[in-house]
Amino acid sequence: MKLAIFTVRSAASFRNQSALLYKAAVHAGFECVEKDMTQRVAYPQDHFDRTLVLAPIWPRYAMDSVRLASPWISRDFRFYGPVDGPLTTNIALFQILRNMRVVVPSQFCYDQLQLCDVKVSGIVPHGINHADFEFDSSGKYDRLEQLRAQYPRKKILFSNINPLHRKGLPHLVKALKILEEKRPDSWIFILHTGRVRALQLCPDLGQTPGLVLEDAYNQLPFRQIALKTASCDVFVFPSLLEGFGLPVLEAMAARRPIVCLDCQPMTELVGSKEAWLFPYRTIKEERWEAPGCMAQLHEYDPAALAEAMIQALDNPKESQEKADRAYERSLRFDYLKTYEPLVRGLV
Description:
Strand order of the largest sheet: 2-1-3-4-5-6
CATH architecture of the largest domain: 3-Layer(aba) Sandwich
Helix content: 25-40%
Number of strands: 14
CATH superfamily of the largest domain: Glycogen Phosphorylase B
Shape: globular
Largest sheet: 6 strands, parallel
CATH topology of the largest domain: Rossmann fold
Distance between the termini: 17 Å
């Protein structure tokens, strides 16, 4: 059987998950191709027994999916991706989605689409390849040792954040200022992001004490991102809104202590036994035009984030115990376990 995976290849997270879907499909015995959603398709050379579109459930991607779901392109079709909140787009789009097989990566996404009366065929969590987070002791992979030599007697905190409003950069800046007051000169925070967009969003980011900005977002091979994630004492995720929380799963697979928000979908991945969770105060709804949704932002006090980081730093034994339990839990998200039912058309 011939299977096609269409995705937004300009986005690293979708590109990486598409690669895992491809591997799962080949493992399941499919003849498989990967394509960008913008690529032309034409019958009869582009005719597939099964087609998966991996993309955010936004109006523009839904309309692209109509073309790819047509019978002369796909005998069997699924639209797989996250949402940021209940959709607010026109009735015509709702009708399109109601006639598609829509699959989402989390219960959070499922609940948001249910509010729109959009039928969801199933929940398929994103997968992880644990081999991506296994490194030998060669100098090629001694990033953590290099950081310890560069910043002696300091704990290494790390975050991998797309420079977007919902990722919590302003909250992180305030939390780091509190952390510096309470634990001065005992840590360094490495932020993997896009410098220009991050500074536009949060102009005082560059003056934040203890912060090192690494400007390579969406530019590196996934193996290097995995190494960065594994090369820290604590992984911090200050995001206010996620459709799945893939960086949290990556930190789980890297066996790193995790600090993240106590809300869905992060709590579908980890609980208080596996991570240092901090609370949110309220859900702030924002109307977002491009995704065509009412985004569900979980607003929190930056002091709560700072306190969770302090707990993670001050209790290294408990942090490692949480990280070990998180790793064991991450095994449920092995990409073959999660993706084979999807590529086989069982979801």
